[in-house]
């Protein structure tokens, strides 16, 4: 009888481990990175959000955090303003877009013209 109990406990542990692994896959799928390039239509430093109008005309409201990386601008988007051309890499979870990295493409265009 004890051998059967040990087997049942072992099976229960394996099922728990398998379930935990499947839930990690589901979480990882939510963190798929996306990218959008366009012009900043609006930025609100108080709520840490920006609206980016993509080249196809769609508008994306994207929040940024202290973990967001910035390229070509000062930290926390201080150099980004309305009209800036940007490329944003973001994750989306439950319909909310969060910037992982923001690149100020306006400066690249200015350098190419010089």
Mean pLDDT: 76
Order of helices and strands: HEEEEEEH
Indicate the overall shape: elongated
- Total helices: the number is 2
- β content, as a range? 35-45%
Q: Report the radius of gyration as a whole number of Å.
A: 22 Å
* SS class: alpha/beta
Q: Regions with pLDDT < 50 over 5+ consecutive residues?
A: 18-28, 109-114
- CATH-defined topology of the largest domain: OB fold (Dihydrolipoamide Acetyltransferase, E2P)
The CATH superfamily of the largest domain appears as Copper binding periplasmic protein CusF
Strand tally: 6
Annotated CATH architecture of the largest domain: Beta Barrel
**CATH class group of the largest domain:** Mainly Beta
Measured as a percent range, the helix fraction is: 25-40%
Q: Give the neighbour order of strands across the main sheet.
A: 1-2-3-6-5
What oligomeric assembly is this protein in?
Answer: single chain
Tell me about the largest β-sheet: 5 strands, mixed, barrel
Question: Distance between the terminal alpha carbons, to the nearest Å?
Answer: 83 Å
Whole-number total of structural domains: 2
């Amino acid at each position: 009888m004890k051998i059967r109990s040990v087997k049942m406990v072992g099976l229960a542990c394996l099922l728990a481990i398998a379930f935990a692994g499947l839930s990690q896959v589901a979480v990882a799928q939510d963190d798929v990175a996306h990218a959008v390039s366009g012009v900043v239509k609006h930025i609100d430093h108080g709520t840490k959000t920006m609206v980016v109008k993509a080249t196809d005309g769609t508008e994306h409201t994207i929040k940024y955090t202290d973990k967001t990386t910035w390229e070509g601008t000062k930290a926390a988007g201080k150099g980004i303003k309305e009209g800036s051309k940007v490329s944003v890499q973001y994750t989306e979870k439950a319909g909310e877009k969060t910037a992982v990295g923001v690149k100020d493409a306006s400066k690249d265009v200015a350098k190419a013209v010089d």
